[in-house]
């Protein structure tokens, strides 16, 4: 039987070389793991933000309006009155040249109303509400059309104007125009600032964009808009669309050479 002398095996050159190789390999693996864990590759990048702005004149307005009917004795009474007023409103709006397809219901509710007397809940009647959105096109060709629609609708019984959203029919083209301007701005900043910092930029390794939505015009108007319908209209509304602005920000990241 062959007996291995472990005491003297470490003197064998082959064993020594194997141990050294294993130690070196282990060291390389550890260094690689530590490098991947602690070295942040983003520190070798430089990012620059550009902004693009495009002014435009809106050509579409979406008007959110509605009717509230309160405390009718029977639910059918509330619905009948609501339907009558909505039909009058739709007719008045269509008479201003708005197509029927541009008038859409957003919300429709019927609910009981309770009064509390001496901590006792008592049915006081039924309330009904309907909210519609009116899409008005080509407002840039008729500056007074929005004012006119709100006025005739209020005379026809609208007692809620919840907000107006202005937009452009070519909004995607306007966004692209602002995006291209923002990219050019970011590239210009990258060229100037990199020279000031004394660094050389390589290829683009990442980018993102941020679109700042146009602020909508919101309001909450009621009661005296149309004197509850059938009465004389109050003061004529003045709702200019004005000039709107699209803002796009683009951030571009470069690899530092």
UniProtKB/TrEMBL annotation:
Looking up InterPro entries in the UniProt record yields: 26kDa_periplasmic_antigen (IPR052022), SIMPL/DUF541 (IPR007497)
Q: Where are the transmembrane segments?
A: 14-34
Keywords (A to Z) from UniProt: Membrane, Transmembrane, Transmembrane helix
Instruction: Please report the name of this protein according to its UniProt entry.
Output: SIMPL domain-containing protein
A biological process (GO) annotation for this entry? DNA damage response
Q: List the Pfam families hit by this protein, alphabetically.
A: SIMPL (PF04402)
Q: Mind giving the lineage of the organism this protein is from? A: Bacteria, Candidatus Falkowiibacteriota
